[in-house]
Input
Amino acid sequence: MVSYTKDDFGWRGRWIAWRNRVMMSPRFQSFATRFALTRPVARRRARALFDLVAGFTYSQILAAVVETRLLQLLADGPLDTATIATRCDLPIDGTRCLLRAAAALGLVEPLGTCWALGSDGAALLGNRGIVEMVAHHHLLYADLADPVALLRRGGGGGRLSDLWRYAESPGLGDSAAVSAYSALMAASQPMVAAQAIAAYPFHRHRRLLDVGGGEGAFLSAVGASVPAIELALFDLPAVCDRARARFVTAGLADRATVHGGNFLTDSLPAGCDIISLIRVLHDHDDAPAMVLLRNIHAALPPGGTLFIAEPMACTPGAEPAGDAYFGFYLLAMGSGRPRSPDEIAAMLRAAGFSRSRLVPTAVPLTARVMVATR
Output
């Protein structure tokens, strides 16, 4: 084991050491709260630290709001506490506690003697994908009840990985194993699809293959936006059955071809000038991710395009979403890790792609886009 001192890291190491000594000092903390110029900063930092400590409680309040369908109840207009209690099947005191907590988080707001939908509650209700993610978070929270144990066993082996069984056993993929996770991904796909379609001109391409495309939610969105493009999907056979049904419902059956297989062991169908990975790469560890990228490289023609859309690590302004949220989510899932654009670019070079670039998206926290050329 190697030991380091602050001097081993130059001026920045010395600066960090000095800053931390000051920040840990009770005397400085007391001064900062009393001095007019530093008081606003001290209050902001205190609020941020408290939110960090209380984050799990906030999440559980949100889970209760989703489970009781409180936001849906208020979507049609304000209701009084007694009516809400009856419709949520809660005692009146429990209802008051939930409403006050939800109001503190901006999800609802008081309106006279009634309660109305809050601005954040309205935004949440308008995004079904987030609501579905919250609804399944009890599985993640069960795995995070002992986060150190999760870290020590190297991830997986819990309730979240059981939801997506083929994360740890890719060869399974029977209908029972894929249905719950596939439905969840389909519900949350529109918010990523909207970012991706707005960021990139898919109309320049003739045929799009979505690898790991699940139930076909992304392809359905592209098909609706770009009428001339041909569509193809590759995923586990049990998932493909669900995709075929979606394409029929969406009126895309004549434009969409579905291919069943395992993209880590089977060859991908040729004939597509663009292949997409939508929230797929970060679901896989480095070794299988490289296998996947090389398989895609082999399936593309010279000059063909690989389109990657997913949340990424080191996203300015959204750093916690990468290595904190998705880092532990994927650890609990038992497969994958969040990667920065630089890490993905290095993997693309190693897989044989000639160049890659980051494409701006409107909400990078939801998804960032990288495009690579064979």
